[in-house]
Design a protein that fits this description.
Elements: H1 24-58, H2 65-74, H3 81-92, H4 101-122, E1 126-127, E2 130-131, H5 133-137, H6 139-157, H7 164-192, H8 199-224, H9 229-256, H10 266-270, H11 275-283, H12 286-296, H13 305-317, H14 320-340, H15 345-359
Helix pairs in contact: 1-3, 1-4, 1-15, 3-4, 3-8, 4-6, 4-7, 4-8, 7-8, 8-9, 9-14, 9-15, 11-12, 11-14, 14-15
């Protein structure tokens, strides 16, 4: 399964590689979105952050080690996009964004619960320039924190200012989407065990592991606010493509940008089957594929910077980077098309702005 570029061919359009390079409407949409996002962030993010801490008091854990670790983890920062997505959708639907603050806090808590566990499983020692929870407090305590954060998520969802039926539906969606995300993480480890992972397997994995967060924040917000099924379905499809775009961008950023981790090419050292690695393994000659697998399957500490540089060269030679760029543009267009079917200009403008913002960290590449 592949909607991207053919192997070995540079399909990037225009001098910067973007099909819409220089499009004033795209630039204006991104700027308008960023301005609006900052307005929402300034007005509502303090409330979200308050809830993230207040739920510790609600659970009577304000002075526990769990609270200490949770606060430490959140001090590493982040864009809080998952927290803001429900507010953005509510605003675009003509609702008061305040109605989605509790849901935004729940989405942010859920996302960070998975990050705490991911750091343990991947062996990452740094996140955004600071020690990860497991590296600072130990593996066992980090597992405890991640587990607790899943339950904090449900406590936060219960604060949504909607009737009991919608609150129950929200909790159910939180649970089912959490299971899909965990299944995506499980699929990732199964993918690592495969000598020849397919692009179809990769896309299935990131749709579960990453895209479901976007579906939860966007479609889940519309559902919580009582919007008709067609709107929920359109947002589900658009968010699915947006989430895939986000993960491919993240894969590329790890090697060709700055992800705030302890080293360039951490995904290679961890043995992750990123979009670049999967494309290369599908298209490499047997000798190159065998060597790449040897590097990916090395112990993390044994992977040298020279290994990373050689792998990066292989990705470029096989057209894996070009493939990823084209796939990102294809997913962006699919997301815009899905939202466009709803014929709601504010939702379309939101999706265009988000997708442009997602691509910003690798602007020079795409």
């Amino acid at each position: 399964m592949s909607t991207g570029a053919e192997s070995g061919k540079d399909t990037r359009g225009g001098p910067t590689g973007r099909p819409d390079a220089g499009d004033p409407s795209a630039t204006a949409a991104k700027q308008a979105f960023l301005t609006h996002l900052e307005e929402l962030r300034g007005r509502y993010l303090p409330e979200v952050l308050f809830l993230l801490d207040d739920v510790l008091r609600e659970a009577e854990l304000a002075r526990s080690g769990l609270a200490e670790m949770c606060r430490y983890h959140f001090e590493t920062g982040g864009k809080r996009l998952r927290a803001l997505l429900p507010l953005l959708v509510a605003d675009c639907l003509g609702e008061d964004p305040a109605k989605a603050v509790a849901m935004g806090a729940a989405c942010e808590m859920l996302h960070n619960a998975t990050l705490v566990h991911d750091d343990v499983q991947d062996g990452d020692e740094a996140r955004r320039g600071r020690e990860t929870v497991w590296h600072r407090f130990g593996v066992a305590r980090a597992i405890n924190l991640g587990d607790a954060m899943f339950y904090f998520t449900l406590l936060l969802a219960q604060r949504a200012p909607v009737d009991g039926e919608r609150r129950e539906a929200l909790a159910r969606r939180m649970l089912t989407e959490t299971l899909r995300v965990i299944d995506g993480q499980e699929q990732e480890f199964a993918l690592r065990a495969s000598a020849r992972p397919s692009m179809e397997q990769y896309l299935d994995m990131i749709e579960a592991k990453t895209a479901r967060f976007f579906v939860l924040g966007m479609a889940g917000s519309a559902e919580m606010l009582g919007r008709e099924p067609a709107v929920v379905e359109g947002l589900t499809e658009g968010a699915r493509h947006l989430g895939i775009l986000f993960q491919i961008q993240d894969d590329v950023l790890d090697l060709y940008g700055d992800k705030g981790r302890d080293q360039r090419g951490s995904d290679i050292a961890e043995g992750k089957r990123s979009v670049l690695a999967v494309h290369a393994l599908e298209n490499a000659a047997p000798d190159d594929a065998g060597w790449l697998l040897e590097v990916l399957d090395k112990e993390r500490a044994a992977t040298s910077s020279a290994d990373v540089e050689r792998v990066a060269g292989l990705f470029e030679r096989l057209g894996s980077l070009s493939f990823a760029v084209k796939e990102m543009h294809a997913r962006r267009q699919a997301a815009l098309t899905a939202i466009g079917t709803l014929k709601q200009p504010r939702l379309s403008a939101m999706m265009q702005g988000i997708s442009e913002t997602v691509l910003e960290p690798i602007r020079d590449l795409v």
